[in-house]
Amino acid sequence: MRIAIAGGTGTVGRLVADLVLNHGHEPIVISRSTGVDLVTGEGVDAVLGDVDVVIDVTSTPSMSAAASIRFFETVTKNLLAAEERAGVRHHVVLSIVGIDSAEKGYGYYQGKRAQERAVEAGAIPYSLVRATQFHEFARQMFERMKTGPFVLVPTMRSQPIDASEVAERLVELAEGAPAGRVADIAGPRVERMADMARRYGRAAGLQGRVVELSLPGSSGRQMRDGSLLAGTAAQVRGKDFAAWLREQTGSDGQAKNPKGTGIGGISIVRAPLPTAPEPSLSNARELVAGLQTAGMPITLTIEGDERRLPVHVDEVAFRALQEGAALVLTRTRGVDATAAVRYLPHAVEIEVGHGPGRLTAQAEHAMTLSRTRADIRRLGGAVTSGASDDGAFHVTATIPVAE
């Protein structure tokens, strides 16, 4: 099979070209460096002879809505017209998760929506897959957003994916029949872009202080509010950012915290307290695993249909779990704690508790979720807490989820 890769010299394009070759097909790289200009259409017909499938991973550096729309509409029009003349039977295109709300937002995303519409309206049978941002985006922050000693990074919640996984999915689609819009793909963990950039800088030994900026307008709101996170129907693929970073640099980029020494040189905990992950129940296991690594006696169970919740519910539920764990673990000595996340049909329930044990002096002053209670009630939820006659203690938060 002859597979042409439009944008075949970019981050994903290079990976796609290598995979096409490894799968026993013939890759045809389409880019200016190979003598093809997709904007003017020059050279496109010459390279599409006998091509079976075109994979479009083209991109533009412009953040302007007008320029992005013009680029993607022009490139897609030229590609599809040339494909029709050449008898290409399948057009595969990569897009971005969360751009449905981009009509008045981030200019680049408006361009991608214009590209999607052009493909959907075109004559060539197609497959379209949306992916979240790549792990490699953290490196690009240092390459594109460095101003003097500062690296300016937007306030952004993402669910980044390894670019090699995106390339794998594109080649899978190219080898199959046209499937239209297919399930989105995303990485396994919700991250904050500024944290990713800081960790990349530490791991790679790059100079520059990362400064997080909250961008104005609807584009900034999209980045902050979780609009760019994957939905419940998305395929979760590949390694998380920390594993990718270790693979790339040999380090996960985490700041090293000094161990507590306690009294007489005896450690208070067995390891430094972990940095809490980005607030999302998709990171609940990581939160509890970090507490366990730090010597905290707590276990986690997840029950029901684990699914992506509305962003505002997801964040409050995670913070309730985080506060509940801290509350329970500081109430007793020498007793294990348990945490549970229960996905109910129309709600999510967080419960943290412990069995009978020796209470600390502060136990009677810490009886409920003081920090997250107001947010839970604002969402129509409720918090209950209390101790049983034998000294056990449980705190439960129930947050409704609108269908």
Automatic annotation (TrEMBL):
Gene3D superfamilies associated with the record: Histidine kinase-like ATPase, C-terminal domain (3.30.565.10), NAD(P)-binding Rossmann-like Domain (3.40.50.720)
PANTHER family membership: BLL4366 PROTEIN, NITROGEN METABOLITE REPRESSION PROTEIN NMRA FAMILY MEMBER
UniProt KW Nucleotidyltransferase keyword: no
Name this protein carries in UniProt: NAD(P)H-binding protein
Taxonomic source organism: Microbacterium horticulturae
Keyword terms of this UniProt record: NADP
The keyword NADP is assigned to this record: yes
Domain NAD(P)-binding: 7-173
Superkingdom classification of source: Bacteria
InterPro entries, A to Z: HATPase_C_sf, NAD(P)-bd_dom, NAD(P)-bd_dom_sf, NmrA-like_oxidored
